[in-house]
Fold each of these.
Amino acid sequence: MKIAIGNDHAGTDYKNSISNYLQSEGYEVINYGTDSEESVDYPDFVHPVADDVENAKVDFGIIICGSGNGANMTANKHQKVRSALCWTKEITALAREHNDANVLSIPARFTSEPQALEMVKTFLTTKFEGGRHQRRVEKIACS
């Protein structure tokens, strides 16, 4: 499975931790994030992740910024992206089960690294339930 990951300066440590975990589990990771804590503009690192998800070059995306909001808003500008801003593994599970989220947005300043890793594990192992949720997901994109 292929995962694209992007982050701004607030998410560098988280990105490194998550990337190391993913690689240790056999995932292929494409890193679009900054490797510095020097201030950068999050859209520059999120759009490439969303492009890869939208064009089916990867299975999922993970994006990280301070609040998770800016990254999430940026990713959701892409028509085939359903990015979910999550801060617990329970919300992460629901984002996959009910919304078929294909990008996980992590708020680095409001979660711990262990929490973020648990959310990533949950995101990648939780399946979309389909059923009544499929109809709703089909209504999300603007045509």
Amino acid sequence: MVTSALPHEIFHASAVAIDGRGVVLLGASGSGKSSLTARLLKTCEGEFIGDDRLVLDEQDGQIFASPHDTLRGLLELRGLGVVRRAYIERAPINLAVELCAREDVARMAPADWFTYGEGRVARLRLHAHDSATPMIIQTALQALGGAAAKNNAFSDDGIYEI
């Protein structure tokens, strides 16, 4: 049985899938969502879901993201313009990244969540323009697929077996 706790809702966010696991990027306008999306597509060989506006829905506790109809396949590269890219229609979200100022990034990820309806995924706070950010996201997805996945959270001691 498939249940939906909420109707589809539009979020000011971007998303990619890396090895089939979705990452939603949250942040204010100008925080680097589109730039980080482009870097994840290139450095992590990600698949493009959507940029700037996403449609989120939830089924049986799993959050899903789809591109917004009016922006399907469009990625803004600030300083250049908008480029058309191949995209996927829908993907499960396994990690949320809230983009923040560099000084607000914690040394170790605290237990933190992004919730939508009955679904929840671990949330990191990262700076979009740090060179290590794509690698941190990719490593976090691996960690969440390992032993930390039992609680869908990050390790209390900040040490991961991957």
Amino acid sequence: MEFLVWIVHILVAAGLVGLVLLQHGKGADMGAAFGSGSSGSLFGASGSANFMSRATAVLATLFFVTSLGLTYFSSQKHATTLKPVVQQPAAPQSLPAVPLGGADKSGAIPK
């Protein structure tokens, strides 16, 4: 299932990039407005939504949904692999024995 979501995600991303690159920019009509053409407004008609802008919105929504799906699959995978580790208590370490009397006058520790 995750593999299918990956395939759809990649196809949607490629389609989204293609649609955005094919669309006519809002600033492209500015030259026509000031010079050689007749345009409805300075930056083009903003009220109408054509096929390409609607397809872009649909692909952007699909991209968002597949991104959430991939996030869900990733969190499920990590939830099963990351199990809490119970640490064993450390064994008590003993210090080397030092006689209570300490060293004698010669500086040697008695045996």
Amino acid sequence: MNFKDLKLANSILKAVELEGYKEPSPIQKEAIPHILNGKDILASAQTGTGKTAAFALPLINNLLNGDKHDKKIKVLVLTPTRELALQVRDNFRKYGINTNLKCSVIFGGVNQRSQVETLKRGVDILVATPGRLLDLMNQRRVDLRNVQSLVLDEADTMLDMGFIHDVKKIISRIPVERQTLLFSATIPTEIKHLAKELLKDPITIKLNNESLTVDKINQSVYFVDKINKAKLLLELLECNTLKSVLVFVRTKHGADKLSEVLEKNGVKNGVIHGNKSQNARISALKNFKSGRHKVLVATDIAARGIDIIELSHVINYEMPEKAETYVHRIGRTGRAGLDGNAISLCNVEEKKVLRQIEISIKQTIAIIAEHSYPAQQAITTNSHYNNRRNKGRNYSHKNYKNYYKRNVSKLAT
């Protein structure tokens, strides 16, 4: 199947070709025909699977059949973070480059004046974070009475961040007769309840997200004591193959602390988290994308919306609390058919999380045992488990890829 088979307008097909897309991804094949037909959608899809194009392309196509001159908001996209909002806005503009449709974005952390002026000039497609949108609605600065299609992007993250109450307030003030598209990396019980409340006879799309991620990414883990993680990270960053590295930490304080350590050791880096101003976050991301900085340190929430095609490595400096977060993290690399690499630094306290991750993705992660700062306790604890995983052998940084190809097998669940 190619994009022509999806019956998209020629103006959109030209934009798709300009972006270098060859054929639709699984989520695009599934979702686009139903969205073109006006159906509500409940889709489970990770970032990196092409989900933005899955809803943006058909929504643009549907708008081409209506009044393109009144410049009233007809498509509303709600996202959990500023970075994701900007990314979605940029994608809509790329896909609609051959149309007269106007797409804009509003989010908090910056002065609202320019956003209000843009709304006054007229917008067809609005991408927004819930807090700022609700604020402007209360000021009567934004009119949503003409919304035809609503998209909730990364709904599970909005739930985690406590935005669902604001989202429901916003939805109560847009037309009941509309198309609603709900995209979420995971579908927990709360999201199921939300979908039941908002969607009408929806088409449910669920991709095998974990297998899509792990199949294209080389994964490895280093067992290392917590005190030596920074030293090992610095050593790894000396390797020329680590060209662009997104480093994940759990907390804002931890992100700032690690960034300072890297800077003191001559590693130019940026850092993004919830306490950073919008200008600081945009600057950090710009420096990273341009190659000025080799490393970007980020918390999970702040990293939502980071879409960098040629990201060579993701490093889990601290293991995530949930297996699905791991999948989401490493999904940042290995995009657009390129090789992806994910490295985890795991101390003995985090080993239980590692086991849960392997069970979730139904795959073992290659242990790199021979390095400068091994944590012997972590390597030798539960020898039966480790023997089952690597057959009693240690693997060095140099030969782990060969091991990975020869010996990786699925765990019994």
